[in-house]
Predict the 3D structure of the following.
Amino acid sequence: MGTLSFLILFPLIVAGVLLVVRNDRARGVIVTVSAVAIAAGSIALAVQYLTGSAVHFEFESEAVSLAALGIDLLISLFIIFVGLKHKQYLAVALAAIQAAIVVWFDLGPAHAIVVENNLYVDTLSVIMALIIGIIGSGICVYAIGYMRDFAQHHADVPDRRPMFFAVMFLFLSAMFGVVFSNNLSWLFTAWEVTTVCSFLLIGYTRTPEATNNAFLQIVMNLAGGLGFAIAIAWIGTQFGTLELSGLISLGLSGAATVVPVLLLAFAAMTKAAQMPFHTWLLGAMVAPTPTSALLHSSTMVKAGVFLLLKLSPVLGLSLAGHWNVAGITVQLVGGVTFLMCSLAAITQSNAKRVLAYSTIANLGLITACAGIGTSEAVWAAIFLIIFHAAAKSLLFLCVGTAEHHIGSRDIEDMDGLFTSMPSLARFMVIGIAGMFIAPFGMLVSKWAALGAFVDSGNIILVFLLVFGSAATFFFWAKWLAKVTAIAGPASDLEASIRTEEWASIALMALLTVLAAVAFPLISSAVVVPYLGEIFPAVSLAISQGNLMIMAAMAALLAIILGSTLGRARASKRDLPVYMGGVGISEGVTAFSGSLGDATPASTRNWYLESYLGEGRLSRIGTVVSVVLLICGLAAALIFGSVM
Amino acid sequence: MASVIGFLGFVIFAPVAGALLAGIDRRITARMQGRVGPPILQPYYDVRKLIEKDDRSVNAVQGVYVAMYLMFAIIAGAIFFSGGNFLLCIFVLTLSSLFFIIAGYSTRSPYAEAGAAREMLQVMAYEPMVLLVAIGFYLASGSFDVSAIATTGSPMIFSLPLVFLGFVYVLTIKLRKSPFDLSTSHHAHQELVKGITTEMSGRTLAMVEVTHWYENIFFLGWVALFFVTGSGASIALAIVVAAVIYFLEILIDNNFARVKWSAMFESAWLVALVLGFVNLIVFYI
């Protein structure tokens, strides 16, 4: 309980301090020390609660409930204020409606409801806390160096770093609130705080583009928040409870929870950037890279899939053994998002945009798994969350650092990174490999997802996954190929990379490899016991033996590549490449043209735009997912009481 | 016990069988083209000569990548022939292909890069159908384990005829046979220099050849798995079918010119979608 309050309150206090500290060095020290403290706190929490059954805390506090209501209102007022200022009336309207519902409910029906357990800890929330506490605060450390460079590179942007770091820590605090709240009202407050934090971080540079994208984000997430608020009011008035655990046990005992569960899932899917709400996460790219890393790996979108996983027992097939309209809707939206975004990633050469599409696609996979809601699907989803958090933050940090040193975030410009930034390129290779290739975690989790999809009886989902994962191979492999190409003699652009950046990048790389090697252990010691508490019987898509083979291969690969692709040998260049004529091999790939001039040869990756126009894919995905959501909600409202 | 025999059998005898198969392939191809053709052991002589050559290359890492390509192809095949998980061996095989692609790209030679990019596209083209084969086996036999699939009693071909057809279609891509030999080819007349292997020579090229031997036997094993039921007669039948399919591939190879990448990609996905869906939907209704 103490650790738990520490994790929620400590970042909050740090945020307050950072808001007033103007000195660069002092800020660096505070951020580093606090990040270590938060990481240590999350590890301490893991030691206490990682492998045990869920612990609920009464923690009866009228003051906290009042504060939550106050924060809700403050958020609404803030949004109404900035919305009016920027003439974004949709955001204003959504915030006003939401505030009205919250006030009506809290002052009226909520008073009659007794909440027994406001807070809780279970294995899933500990796993999330580790991700937030280690990866999230690691990104904050990275941001120290990055934002110093950023301020120098963008002299035109007002330096608002105190606010930036304060919001980063506020974000961490809110995320801890999300994963520990059993009281849905509290959960909602934390949920809305994460929305506002993203808004502030995305709009950091205050350019028109940044402001527009920040509003795109907040409008979409307010729509989700509205769904959340209605769900709370529905649950409160219909079932007389406000507890997440209560809702789930009601659902499992056969109560008609389909509508509120679907509304909560809707809120979660907006947060997890599922189609048709994927555009906000793509727009969020305008923010400085640490923001993207934080949003994609350990916060915001992970709050969405976390809630979906919590709901998975009442979404999925395990509920009374028959299909459930909420579950089917979630499955299909996730599946469609996975396929469309995997294909769209092929057409992109902007590294951050590829990463964004890949995040959305993977969240789609997790969403689909949550919608299936069997033990093997949830097993896959938990591992997808873990591995995605580590590998994706690693990649964002690498891209951010590369961008500051080669002056571009275009994958085509990463040609030869293997020689010009040898260490960074190798870290990037670990991240890319971690995302899509056996024996690393994401692929193993995808394998488990495939097994779960096949067993779910939803053949459409199987096909969405099969084609989507072929596309995944293509867009990662061509990026990996660009990074590993050996072009020209070694030059060193790495000297000026800051220590904070190296430390965070190395940490993420270590986590990616460690998680892959420790996979069988994490599965048997942590995840399987957890699933045993939720599901009557746990079946797994991948046997422990096969997990061991994968882990052994991961270790083998790490050792072989680590020892053979060292810096010295990689720069050896024996023969010139064949150029179909007189080749010139002095640092560039060129040939002697007919007039004796050196003609450089350049090659580009394939982007298949004629097939997979980004716009077309996005339109198809949007139409399909909107239709799915509307039909799902309509079906839930009409048949909800009987299903 | 059977799994140990399968494991060692593949690791030791697959290159022998693969070399002979390549020799027979070249002989039959020559006859189809009105030539006499080289001795059956010519592929073996070629590789031996390559190994004796000077070890020179455009960079030092290419050899490492190609060695990984060979190693993971062997591991994938060994998993298959020792009765392991079919999906696992697909994923390990994909890893092996990835190393081949990286080896091509690492040189930054335009020709090798063009070939490597095409190889990447080939992987994307055949991957859905290959995964559907695995899913088909699982739905028909209740397991992803090759040992269980091979001993179900009723041959897989009875329940997965369309999946089999789809697999034979993408097998042409996997064997890098014309019309789908986009990344590299033995046919000089339609080659863009030498595609992905442009910058490979000596021992590195020898490893590529040996990997092909392993791969070909491995893929024919997949064909055979559609017919094996555990009895000796079924194994004999499966070997005959695999031989017939390989002959068919040679026939196709010699009768079609290389197609554009888009034709390969579109047709492979369409085949997977139509044949796969029509066949697998049976298990869901």
